[in-house]
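Summary for the steering committee. The consortium agreed at its last meeting that each partner would contribute one worked example illustrating the joint modelling workflow. Our contribution is presented below. We chose a case with several input lines so that the handling of multiple components could be demonstrated. No manual editing was applied between input and output; the record is shown as generated.
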Amino acid sequence: MSDIHAAIDAVWRIESARLIAGLARMVRDVGLAEDLAQEALLAALERWPASGVPDNPGAWLMATAKHRAIDLLRRGKMLERKHDTVGRELEARQESPEDALHAALDDDVGDDLLRLIFTACHPVLSTEARLALTLRLLGGLTTEEIARAFLVPVPTVAQRIVRAKRTLAEARVPFEVPRAADRAARLSSVLEVIYLIFNEGYTATAGDDWTRPALCDEALRLGRILAELTPQEPEVHGLVALMEIQASRLHARVGPSGEPVLLLDQDRSRWDRLLIARGLAALERVEALGGTLGPYALQAAIVACHARARTAEDTDWTRMTALYDALAQLAPSPVVEVNRAVAYAMAFGPAAGLEIVDAVAAEPALASYHLLPGVRGDLLFKLGRFDEARGEFERAASLTRNARERTLMLERAAACGPAGPR
Amino acid sequence: MSISPAIIRRLYGTRKVRAPRPRPRETTMRFMMLVIPKVYEKAGADFVPPADLIAKMTKYNESLSKAGVLLSLDGLTPPAKGARVKFASGKPKVVDGPFTEAKELVGGYWIIQVKSKEEAVEWAKRAPMLDGDVIEVRQVQEIDDFPPDVRKAAGR
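What follows is the complete predicted structure of the assembly.
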């Protein structure tokens, strides 16, 4: 990449979300807003190599996109596209369209960014669409980058994004921050999207790599942005704390040949102290806001138990069982039960853990959940029931879609000794 | 570059547009932006930066935070309050501040997490600095980026 193109790319990464957000408020259509922003970028790519990057590149891009929007408005194209809504609203406010556009663009952009996040994560969209649209509009990622990150073909992502924009337009989703009644549910949709992005990077569900840190980086950045925009929301800080602390282990959980290294086997000197400190600080912000801990804050408090322990033996498992009990009450799920079983096994012995696992083993939701046989195998192994353990590890190996994890499970099955009567 | 093919087609029809090149690296890097304030070459131990500069700096710090790129930052007290430990002929020698002969003294730093050196430079360009100040942009060395023998020496 030439220097000027790298510089333009950097400006785009910094400015794109704010640019799209400001434009979306103006034209009431995130799809059109993104097109306008892309056109401004294209103009920059044409002009900046000769003129150099302007002193205030963000303002330049915004002015360029704005001119284009006004142009479209004058030619009536935007009205056509927006079923007259923008035109009607502008008329109702008895302002000239251009004055309204200028006024809209002079306001603070923070609220616009928040509106954009809520719109991209709107429940009217499928989960895949929300993920793709969020990475594209807020993360500034290209369709190609999103496709690579999720290991799906480029046309699939492109289609998802086109359809998502059309769905938002057809459903006439207003470009706004949801009000009180709606807010909690809508916020949890936003948090879910960010955490799904993080988790896809943290434990890749498919492919040859155990982790894809680029997705974790994006999710963390989105979480940090959201925390600045909604400082009074404890669960936002809870999610940020959870991601910071989990990300602190990213390097340690991959071995020299790319194989997974389980938490208790990790070299803790490789944990990222800076991220742990940030995570614990975010958790303190949750506590300072008061109230009971929500599901993300509880999970953050759980991973903080690991982060605070200098060695695996120092881990406060008893505290962790209490936190898992609270989580199981607040957000009961078979997956939480499996994790709760692990904590109980560590605190009170493998039999205590096995009891919890066995209680949920028949759950249909867990039928293809590879961690269940993995955990069950581990507990059986510790209880000396090697034949049963081997069967569980083999089942875990057959269920996971991650090549690295499959190898690990087959190794553990082999460690149970040969099958059959001895 | 983040330009959708649809846009290119819409604007340019079938006219050839140079294909966007892939980014060399998609994970983030950490950069330290070291502040080298001119005033620190002469500042006394009791030097305090003016309130209006602090206000501008606070706003800038917020902009880094709001963009989700800021990892940490610190400002350093004047060099006059510090010490230098110099290493020559096998013996450390301590010199207390102020360092009258020294130029380019560090006044603070930010650590940011970004995708490219250019992005770090773009952030540095936006900092509210005074005439004669310098911001040095340096990538944080990650052990994992070293060759295997160096990683091994570092215990990795």
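Chain A touches chain B through 45 residues (CB under 8 Å). Residues 298 and 323 of chain A are 6 Å apart (CA to CA).
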